[in-house]
Design goal:
Elements: E1 4-7, H1 17-21, E2 26-28, E3 34-36, H2 52-61, E4 67-70
Length: about 80
């Protein structure tokens, strides 16, 4: 099943866990906050199957639970 991911930038503290675990998925912007590189943090592109283990580990290691994973694309138009 497809998974979609985004980072809640209001919750992110920029600790670096996600990028350290999954540098192909996460990067930091000029404000020092993480974002998903796959779709510029929109949560609209399905995560490739080969990245799911890294994603799961990054999700578990996020101290603020800023990484959000869903079975459907996120609606960023709100």
């Amino acid at each position: 099943m497809a998974r979609y991911v985004t980072v809640d930038r209001d919750e992110c503290i920029g600790c670096g866990n996600c990028e350290g675990i999954a540098p192909d998925i996460f990067e930091f912007d000029d404000e020092g906050l993480a974002f998903v590189t796959l779709d510029e943090n929109q949560g609209t592109y399905p995560m490739p199957e080969g990245k799911m283990d890294q994603l799961a580990e990054a999700f578990e290691e996020c101290p603020t639970e800023a990484i959000q994973i869903a079975e459907r694309p996120f609606n960023k138009s709100k």
